[in-house]
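STRUCTURE:
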């Protein structure tokens, strides 16, 4: 469907048809879920213009565009294969008498439909279909399990659904998948954690599950590329809640993240940038041999976002310990900072200034 609709209907971030378009103060429109993730990740610039945004950007619903997309979807002919009406699919999914093949087809079609249709996502949760979806998440059939997880991820995209899904028991099922699922299912499960954690209250709830954070940390160790990245993203999402930082640190996340950062997983520096805010996190980082070298590597070779978090993390550590401060100077961090003075990113400028002052002032907070 997305290839048949005008490009203006597509979110500039996800490139998917927008289900809940909102206008940023820059004047550009994005899908709410995509721009919220951008903002929750710490960005305070417009993804298109790169111009700075307020500290707490306002997202204004673009009702006109939403109506256009909805009406266009209704009247546009589809070249895809015809499929059953959503209510028929839901009935087939929830009926005890439906053959397993029919249930799989229903999961597949609903996962495709709910990816772009927020109204259908709401109808599906209101219809009482969530328990059936969660039942298939528990399935021992990896194909059924993966389709159910994809549908669950789509349902979690709407903020109105996030708390309800947690109340229905989604976290318990998803954490189980993180531990024993297939690689693809584990990656989707970690993404669901990230999506659910957009709502602040869910961060605490997820972190309180006994095996949630340990399972994500284990995925950092044993997972493949996509799994590691999604696990790090999920940790970043839930570790904005202070108590979860300590839980991650207690699970041994710090040395694992530093090692992954050294191996090129830049998402790890974002998580470290949260964990460094805790005294326990700083102490754990100081125990890791070569920590300064890895952070310096980020400053030299990282993306703009990686450099931003690298500067912040280094400054926190140098402020905390004169030994770390000495090591940073020894590794030539001041010279690297001089090479970054032309950066236009406001956060990089601020963190750069702070780090230079720390290294030049020769002080630590202990």
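SEQUENCE:
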């Amino acid at each position: 469907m997305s290839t048949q609709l005008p490009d203006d209907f597509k979110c500039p971030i996800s490139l998917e048809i927008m289900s809940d378009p909102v206008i940023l103060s820059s004047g550009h429109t994005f899908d709410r879920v995509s721009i919220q993730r951008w903002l929750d990740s710490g960005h305070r610039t417009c993804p298109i213009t790169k111009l700075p945004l307020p500290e707490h950007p306002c997202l204004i619903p673009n009702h006109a565009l939403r109506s256009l997309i909805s009406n266009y979807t209704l009247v546009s002919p589809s070249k895809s294969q015809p499929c059953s009406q959503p209510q028929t699919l839901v009935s087939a999914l929830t009926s005890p008498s439906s053959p397993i093949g029919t249930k799989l087809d229903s999961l597949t079609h609903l996962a495709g439909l709910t990816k772009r249709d927020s109204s259908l996502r709401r109808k599906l949760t209101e219809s009482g279909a969530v328990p059936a979806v969660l039942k298939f998440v528990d399935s021992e059939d990896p194909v059924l399990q993966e389709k159910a997880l994809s549908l669950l991820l789509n349902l979690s995209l709407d903020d109105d659904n996030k708390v309800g899904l947690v109340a229905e028991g989604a976290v318990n099922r998803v954490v189980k998948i993180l531990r024993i699922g297939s690689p693809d299912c584990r990656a989707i499960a970690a993404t669901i954690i990230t999506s659910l954690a957009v709502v602040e209250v869910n961060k605490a709830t997820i972190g309180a599950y006994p095996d949630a954070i340990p399972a994500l940390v284990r995925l950092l160790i044993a997972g493949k590329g996509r799994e590691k990245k999604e696990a790090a993203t999920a940790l970043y999402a839930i570790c904005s809640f202070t108590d979860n930082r300590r839980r991650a640190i207690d699970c041994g996340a710090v040395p694992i993240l530093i090692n992954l950062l050294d191996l090129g997983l830049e998402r790890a520096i974002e998580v470290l940038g949260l964990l460094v805010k805790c005294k326990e996190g700083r102490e754990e980082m100081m125990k890791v041999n070569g920590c300064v070298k890895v952070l310096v590597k980020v400053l030299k070779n990282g993306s703009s976002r990686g450099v931003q978090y690298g500067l912040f993390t280094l400054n926190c550590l140098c402020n905390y310990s004169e030994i770390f401060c000495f090591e940073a100077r020894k590794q030539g961090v001041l010279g690297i900072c001089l090479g970054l003075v032309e950066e236009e990113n406001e956060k990089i400028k601020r963190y750069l200034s702070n780090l230079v002052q720390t290294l030049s002032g020769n002080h630590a907070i202990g």
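REMARK: The domain at 5-72 is CATH 3.30.40.10 (Herpes Virus-1).
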